[in-house]
Structure formats: C-alpha cells, structure tokens
Amino acid sequence: MLVITGTGASQGVAIGPLHFLAFQAAEIRREKAADPEAEAARFEQARLAACTQLDELYRNAVEKVGMENAAIFDIHRMMLEDLDYRESVMDRIRNQGLNAEYAVSLTAEEFSAMFSSMDDEYMKERAADVADISERLQQALNPQAHKALMPKGPSILAALDIRPSEAVQLDKDRILGFATVEGSAFAHTAILARSMLLPAVVGLGAKLDASLDGKPAILDGYSGTLYIDPDDATKVAMQAKLRESLKRREDLRKLKDQPSVTADGTKIEVFANVNHISGLDEAADNAAEGIGLFRSEFLFLESKTYPTEEEQFAVYKKVATFMQGKKVVIRTLDIGADKQADYFHLPDEANPALGLRAIRLCLTRPEVFKTQLRALYRASVFGNIAIMFPMIISVEEVRDIRGITDEVMGELKNEGFAFNADTERGIMIETPAAVMISDELAKMVDFFSIGTNDLTQYTLAIDREHNGLSHFYNPHHPAVMKMIEITVKAAHEAGIWAGICGELGADLTLTETFLRMGVDELSVSPGMILPLKEKIIKTDMRAVMK
Ligand code: PEP
Ligand code: MG
Q1: Which of 376, 484, 463 is nearest to 425 (CA)?
Q2: 429 lines ligand 1 (CB under 6 A)
Q3: Catalytic residue positions, numbered
Q4: Element (H, E) at 402
Q5: What tens digit of pLDDT does each residue of 71-85 get?
Q6: Which of 88, 158, 206, 380 has the fewest CB atoms nearer than 10 Å to its CB?
C-alpha cells in the first residue's frame, strides 16, 4: 500500500480506481506565422511560463518527497533551458515562418527520435522527458485547447492540477473524487469539488504520478490522504468512514425544513453558492434559502465563444424561475486570473491575480458587460434576482456601473422589454480598498457580499492558488476578521445587508463570530448548508455574548 498525504480540500471518502486525467492534445496544425518575431516572443513567453511551473513543482516536491524524488522537475526545467532545443524551435519559427505549436512538435519529434536511438538506457529514457516538456509547452501556448479524456466508469480523477475551465467540462457521473499533485484548498477547482459534493485532496506532490493510473485507491478528503492499493485494514476503516459520512448526511437532512435561527431567535440566512445551472438541484436538495453567489463566469468558461444575450437570458431565467421567488444573487462575469477563456484574448500578465479581471474587464469591454446586464435585467421579472459586481476597489467604478445599468434599463424600456427596475445592485467586498471605503460604497449600493477567498489573498498578499504557501494563507488572520467586521458595520450604518460568500462562510468555527458581528447571510457550497444550519440552530447568542 502506498500512502500519499496532501491537503483535504473537500470532505468525504471515495473508493475506486485511480484515473489519471489525460488531456487530449489540441490538434496541432502547420500554419504560417503572420509575424515570426511575435510568434518567437509567444514561444518564449510559453517557455518561461513552463519553467515557472516546473520551479514551483520542484520546490513543492522537495518539501514533500525530498530532493531525489523531486529531481525530475529540475531535469525538465534544464531541458527547457537547453540551447539546442530552444534554437531548434526558434529556427523553425524565425527562418521557416512556422507557428510556435508546430515548431515545438517538430522539434519534439526530432529530439525524441535522437534520444530513442541512443544505446545508453539512461539517455533512451530522456525521449519521454522531451515529450513531457513539449506537452507542457503546448499547454502553455494554448491553455484552453486541450480536452479531458475521461475514464469509462466511476473513478477517482488524478491530475497535475485541474483548471476551472477544464473542471467544468468533466462528466460528474464518472467522478468519485479529485486528487491533484498541485492545487490549493482555496483555488476554484477545490471550490468546484465542494460544490459538486465530491471529496478532494490537493497538493499531493510528485508521488502521485501517471504510473499509478488504474490502481485501486481510496481518497479521504477529511484527512487529506490518498491510499493506493489499500490493505484490508485500511479498506475496512475507510468503508466505515464512508458509511459514517453518508449516515451523517442523512441525519442532517432532518434539518431541511427548519429555519436557520439560533436558540435565542437570531436569524441568519443560509444561501447556496452555485457555479452552474447543473448545481441547482443540489442547492434545492439541501434546502438553500436562496442563492448568494451564482458564478456567471462558468457559463463563459464552458463556451467556445461569447454567450449571446439570448443564451444568457435563458440561463438566468432558469435560475430565477427554479428558485421560485427566493433571492438569487447573480455575480457578473469574474473572468481573468485563474479563470481564463481563450476567446477573450486576454494579455499574458506577470501577476494575473492583480491584472485585468472581473469588473476591470467588464468596464474596459462595455459591449460584453452590457450584453450580460441586458440578459440579467430581462430575466429579473421571472424571480427575485439581485445583481452583484466583483472586485470593486473604488467609488468611481460603482458610479460607472450604476450609469451603465441605468443605460441598459433605459434601452430595454425603449425596446419594450419587461424588467424589474428595483433589481438590487450589490458589490463584492473582496479587496482591502473596498473595505477601507466601505462606508462610502454602502451609500451607493443595496448590499455587500464579502468574498473572503480574495479578501484573504489581497489582505495577506498571498496567492490563493499557491499550494506551497497554503500554511501562510490564513483566512482566520486578525486582519481579515477586522476587515469583515468593518464591512458589516459600514453596511448596517447605511441600512443595507451584508453577507459572506467566500469559503470562510462555511467555517463552523467562525459561525458564532459572524453571528456576533451581525452578518445577515452566509452563502456556502450546497454540501455545507445543513452542517451550517445545525451549527446555527445549536448556538445560543445569550451564552456567546456573556
Ligand atoms: C471570493 O473571492 O471569496 C469569492 C467568493 O469569489 P471567487 O472565489 O469566485 O473569487
Ligand atoms: Mg473572488
């Protein structure tokens, strides 16, 4: 039995074969580079991105499995630095005018063939490494273009990492859980796993490699452990744990119809975070009192091109209708950073989390923004929709947003469309800037929803995606707690409501703290609704306040 430990990112136990998720390489076509110099620069950028990935993999692996086992990542990095390899690709781009993808694939073939023909066994094996680094380069050149090859039957999916745009394409029926080499508990893939009610363990390191494909495995999302070829004692213990977790879920279902009110009568709304319309059933099944965060960008991530107004309208209408008058907070497009869609053609950025994302993107591309707003307002008559804007940092942005939303309503009115002119407009508080001016912002909007995932990232200056830094990424940090308190106070002083839709809302060790702060709503992944409800019902604020 092989035992690999990582970080538990989504609770639960999965028992089944391990399937290493292979990504079908995008079809590589021979094309003529319109501008060979620009193409050469594109290759260089992809190469540097691949080097950075390998550096990070190496560092994490040294920490977890020691220098010797981590060496492979260092070897791959050296191969990417190799002058002959680089010159071979560059020559094909600059002198033969080929596109970078094709140049990389020709060089990969040539170098693999050369290594394979060598007598030395060690050198022969390097052919596989050439293929590996070339695949990494292809992915860096076209991050969205490769397609997941799914297992035939239900399996624990293993991968280096799974990008949100890839995760949305996976067929849930064939996934028992996620196990990744990289990744962090606050990255979007972990969030997706939680919303799909699937166990996940991330940051398992280099011990989890493709040679384990097909092996029987057990994934324990509670302790962050992956067992390969489990022995009988482990099987028995894990089966018991699985039964226990299913029973606990069943017991919690008894709370479905109970209101989320503390023993002393304090009411706090418990809403669901939903990423996709396919998640609506889970929200309803867990008795969500509303949807506090509908991540509309997943609609864009699963699409090959910009979803039209009609396509978006159909989705928003469905969400609003499904929830039958309960509040549905739909967040406008939060694309950028780790959530990339090719057709946006976003520039490569040194610091994407600090780059062109979310509201910044919408305000620089008003046509995309307005299409979404038109669809949202048109859907507003089918239920209780509230519109929420992410990544706000200034009063000017909110002023611009109000101007654009007013303009959209004016246009719809002239065109004879029905819409609810009183649709709530709220903002996410997920930057320290927004917290510091929350008193001013509160006068301009109808609600605040605190995005603790990004708020922690930007307050502590720690990349939420960075597995190697996860022990520094502390959402319980007093600075984060103070930010939440300031925000809720500013909201209440202005007479608006304030909720939390970041993952911290589901942290049961903080429920009392949030109740004490007066948080009005907690929006959590569907699987956490009932545990949170249980915690609320059992809390007596008279005892807590003593
Ligand atoms: C957050 O940042 O806390 C949040 C809810 O938004 P996302 O996780 O999608 O960035
Ligand atoms: Mg966020």
Answers
A1: 376
A2: no
A3: 188, 501
A4: helix 395-414
A5: 878 888 999 999 999
A6: 88
